[in-house]
TrEMBL record:
It comes from the Bacteria. GO terms for biological process: methylation. Pfam families: RrnaAD (PF00398). Keywords: Methyltransferase, RNA-binding, S-adenosyl-L-methionine, Transferase. One of its GO terms (molecular function) is RNA binding. This is Phospholipid N-methyltransferase.
């Protein structure tokens, strides 16, 4: 798994963003934030080789759905192989910026959780603004946007998101913040 990750970092360092996949400590910290006491619609942005996806899917109830948006075609092929027999999981070889249209194609207007591994820090400003706007648009009042980031810069996007909870994962390369946002009152 890590060999594939390393190959894709070398092929496209800016798009992949980090040099190794998230650690099991980080995937545990993010996945435990999702509550599957009832069916949920989950969107994952930038799943890479699927370390968070596997943890989330393991916890998902039988009526929940997960849509994963990944740009890298080798990661997509690897993910499709892993989840080929799980009808709850849809792997999309699409840009995260296309999320609203793609969800609409599946008859979904809003989702309950958006889990994002996108390296927002290195995404150019215009694309970042578009992405964050799409994420906020896809959320309802109870939705949560869960993301792991080296900085807490996303807390500045208070017109879109309100910080609900934050923790630090030191046992990851690099050590990272886990940020959980609600949709901002102003964006509802
Ligand atoms: C930092 S890696 C995280 C991978 C994995 N989630 C993890 O934690 O190990 C970021 C991933 O986002 C993907 N990515 C970057 N920009 C994207 C975009 N606009 N739409 C979809 N995927 C994107 C990259 O190809 C890469 O797989």
């Amino acid at each position: 798994m890590s060999l594939l990750f390393f190959k894709r970092v070398l092929a496209n360092p800016l798009q992949v963003g980090y040099i190794v996949p998230s650690s099991p400590f980080l995937t545990r910290q993010t996945s435990r934030r999702l509550d599957f006491s009832k069916p949920r619609v989950v969107v994952e942005l930038g799943p890479g080789e699927g370390c968070h996806t596997r943890k989330i899917v393991k916890r998902m109830d039988k009526n929940s759905r997960l849509f994963a948006f990944e740009l890298d075609e080798e990661f997509v092929a690897h993910l499709r192989k892993q989840f080929a027999h799980d009808p709850r999981v849809t792997i999309l070889h699409r840009n995260a910026t296309e999320m609203p249209d793609v969800l609409a194609e599946h008859g979904i207007t809003h989702c309950d959780y958006i889990v994002s591994g996108l390296p927002f820090l290195v995404i150019p400003e215009e694309a970042r603004g578009k992405l964050l706007g799409s994420i906020s648009d896809a959320m309802h009042e109870e939705s949560r946007f869960i993301t792991y980031q080296v900085t807490t810069q996303l807390c500045d996007e208070s017109h879109l998101f309100e910080l609900h909870d934050k923790e630090y994962c030191a046992l990851n390369v690099p050590p990272i913040n886990v940020l959980e946002f609600k949709k901002a009152q102003a964006a509802r």
